C-alpha cells in the first residue's frame, strides 16, 4: 500500500503541506480535492518523488519514494504520473507515444497493447496522427494511455479530464476508471470537478490550510460535510440552524417556519434553482417549476 507519514513540504519559504498522514490500498481510487492553490498538484509531485520532503516519509509497499537528492532518476516502474501539462513527444504519432516504453522484442504484444489502450481513451482513429496536430483534450488522452501502457500499480492523475470536452468526458471517465479497477491499479486523482469523484472515488482527501481537512468515503462526506468547503464540493447548499442543507433538501410546503421571498429562478434542465431571501440572508433551493420574483413561499428541510 501507499503509506504517507508526517509529510511536510515548503517551496523555499512558502509552506504548502504539513503533517499529512494517510494510507492507500492497492486498487483503491482516491480523490484529492481542495481549492486552487491548496497543494493538490504539489502532493502528487511529492508522491512521484519530484521534490525532496522537508520531513516525513512516503512508502509504496517496501520501497521508500525518494526525491532528487537521493534518487538520480525521478520516478519508479510501479508508478506513473500524468501531469497537468502532459509531456508528450510532438513529432511522433499517437501510437508511437503510447508505445514509447513498451518493449520492441514482442512486436505483436506491443501492437495489441497499443490498440487496447487506444480503445480505452477513444483515439483509435488517430493512431497514426502526429501528436502536435492534436487538440489539448486529445493530447491529454494520449498522456493517459501512455501512463497506462506498462500497467503501473499506482497512477497519479492531475486534473485528468480538464481539457476534454463535455461530449466525451462522461464516457471517457467511465472507461478509464473501470479500466483501472479491472487492472487493480491504485489511483490518486487531483481534481476540483465533482464529476471526477462521485461514482468513482472510493475515498476523498480534502486539502485545506496546508493539511487534510477531511477524509472519508464520498457518501459519508456528502451526508455529513462538517465544513462549508466540503459541502460546496457536492453542490449548492445553505447553512440553516447550524446545519448544511443542500439546495435539493429544501421542499416547498403550505406552511412552515422557513418563510422566504423569491429573488431569482435559474433553469437547470430537470429543475429550477431558486434564489430567495430568508431573514435577510440568501438561500437556494430546487423546484420543479419556475417561481416569480417577489413570491412568498414556505420551505421544509427534508433529509
Ligand atoms: P493546486 O494544485 O491545489 O492548485 P499547487 O500544488 O499547484 O496547488 O500549489 C500549492 C501552492 O504552492 C500554491 O500557493 C502555489 O502558488 C505554490 N507553488 C506551486 N508550485 C510552485 C513552485 N514550483 N515554486 C513555488 N511555489 C509553488
Ligand atoms: Mg494543480
UniProtKB/TrEMBL annotation:
Q: Could you tell me which SUPFAM superfamilies the record lists for this protein?
A: P-loop containing nucleoside triphosphate hydrolases (SSF52540)
Q: Which SMART domains match?
A: AAA (SM00382)
Q: Which InterPro entries match?
A: AAA+_ATPase, ABC_SmlMolc_Importer, ABC_transporter-like_ATP-bd, ABC_transporter-like_CS, P-loop_NTPase
Keywords assigned by UniProt, alphabetized: ATP-binding, Cell inner membrane, Cell membrane, Membrane, Nucleotide-binding, Translocase, Transport
The ABC transporter domain covers 2-234
Source organism per UniProt: Bizionia echini
- Protein name per the record: ABC-type Fe3+/spermidine/putrescine transport systems, ATPase components
Recall the GO molecular function terms of this protein's record.
ATP binding; ATP hydrolysis activity
Q: Which residues form the signal peptide?
A: none
Amino acid at each position: 500500500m501507499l503509506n504517507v507519514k508526517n509529510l511536510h513540504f515548503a517551496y523555499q519559504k512558502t509552506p504548502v503541506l504539513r503533517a499529512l498522514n494517510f494510507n492507500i490500498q492497492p486498487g483503491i481510487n482516491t480523490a484529492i480535492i481542495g481549492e486552487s492553490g491548496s497543494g493538490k498538484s504539489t502532493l502528487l509531485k511529492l508522491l512521484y518523488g519530484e521534490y525532496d520532503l522537508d520531513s516525513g516519509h512516503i512508502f509504496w509497499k517496501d520501497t521508500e519514494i525518494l526525491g532528487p537528492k537521493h534518487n538520480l532518476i525521478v520516478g519508479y516502474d510501479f508508478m506513473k504520473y500524468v501531469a497537468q501539462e502532459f509531456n508528450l513527444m510532438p513529432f511522433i504519432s499517437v501510437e508511437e507515444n503510447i508505445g514509447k516504453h513498451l518493449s520492441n522484442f514482442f512486436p505483436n504484444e506491443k501492437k495489441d497493447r497499443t490498440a487496447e489502450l487506444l480503445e480505452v481513451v477513444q483515439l483509435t482513429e488517430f493512431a497514426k496522427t502526429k501528436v502536435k496536430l492534436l487538440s489539448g483534450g486529445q493530447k491529454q488522452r494520449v498522456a493517459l494511455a501512455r501512463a497506462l501502457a506498462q500497467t503501473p500499480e499506482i497512477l497519479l492523475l492531475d486534473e485528468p479530464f480538464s481539457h476534454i470536452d463535455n461530449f466525451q468526458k462522461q464516457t471517457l471517465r467511465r472507461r478509464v476508471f473501470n479500466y483501472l479497477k479491472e487492472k487493480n491499479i491504485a489511483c490518486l486523482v487531483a481534481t476540483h470537478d465533482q464529476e471526477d469523484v462521485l461514482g468513482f472515488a472510493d475515498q476523498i482527501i480534502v486539502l485545506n490550510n496546508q493539511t487534510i481537512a477531511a477524509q472519508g468515503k464520498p457518501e459519508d462526506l456528502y451526508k455529513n460535510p462538517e465544513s462549508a468547503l466540503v459541502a460546496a464540493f457536492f453542490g449548492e447548499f445553505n447553512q440553516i440552524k447550524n446545519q448544511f442543507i443542500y439546495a435539493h433538501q429544501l421542499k416547498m410546503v403550505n406552511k412552515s417556519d422557513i418563510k422566504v421571498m423569491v429573488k431569482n429562478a435559474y433553469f437547470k434542465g430537470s429543475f429550477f434553482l431558486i434564489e430567495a431571501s430568508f431573514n435577510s440572508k440568501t438561500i437556494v433551493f430546487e423546484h420543479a417549476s419556475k417561481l416569480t420574483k417577489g413570491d412568498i413561499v414556505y420551505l421544509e428541510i427534508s433529509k
